[in-house]
Amino acid sequence: MTPKIIQGNSHKDQRGSLSYNNSFDASAVKRMYVIENDLGFIRRWQGHKIEQRWFTAVSGRFKIQLIQVDDWKAPAVDLEKLTFELVNETFNVLHIPNGYVTSIQALADNSKLLVMSNYFLNEIKDEYRYPVDYFKNK
């Protein structure tokens, strides 16, 4: 499965604004949490062999990079990176299938990223982390 953006939208009128995503099926979500990174800090490379996740910016902007891991014990260092940008105005949801590691960078002050997962915390042992400089720039 390939990562994809599930399109959201927003509406503004004299009453204020409404952000929505009528295309996102949240039935697989079991838990959620919010990530807030300081500007300049990049949270990388962490991912899941089994778990899938969905990201949406609830405040600010984020640059998300994904790498599909070829070997969880010793991945190739030159794997292709996919890059996405999430902004809170659109309420887009980025679906990250299992098998990917992520790099998360806030691009604006006070940015908040909502993360949703299809597994409860500690339901499975499926967290993989690699040094921040493990994968080469490509």
Which key terms come to mind for this protein?
mainly beta, 5-stranded antiparallel beta sheet, 12 strands, 138 residues, Jelly Rolls, single chain
Describe what this molecule looks like in 3D:
By secondary structure, the protein is an all-beta fold. It has a single domain (30-129), classed as Jelly Rolls. The chain is built from no helices and 12 strands. It has a 5-stranded antiparallel sheet with strand order 1-9-6-11-4, with no helix packed on it. Strand 2 and strand 3 form a beta hairpin.
Mean pLDDT: 96
Structural class: mainly beta
Q: Which consecutive residue ranges, at least 5 long each, have pLDDT under 50?
A: none
- Oligomer kind: single chain
Number of helices: 0
Q: Return Rg in Å.
A: 15 Å
- What is the helix/strand order? EEEEEEEEEEEE
Sheet with most strands: 5 strands, antiparallel
Globally, the shape reads globular
How many distinct beta strands? 12
How widely separated are the two ends? 22 Å
CATH architecture: Sandwich
Helix content: under 10%
Strand content: over 45%
Write the layout of secondary structure elements.
Elements (H helix, E strand, L loop, with lengths): L3 E3 L2 E5 L2 E5 L10 E5 L6 E7 L4 E7 L1 E8 L12 E7 L5 E4 L3 E7 L5 E6 L10 E2 L9
Antiparallel strand pairs: 1-9, 2-3, 4-11, 5-10, 5-12, 6-9, 6-11, 7-8, 7-10
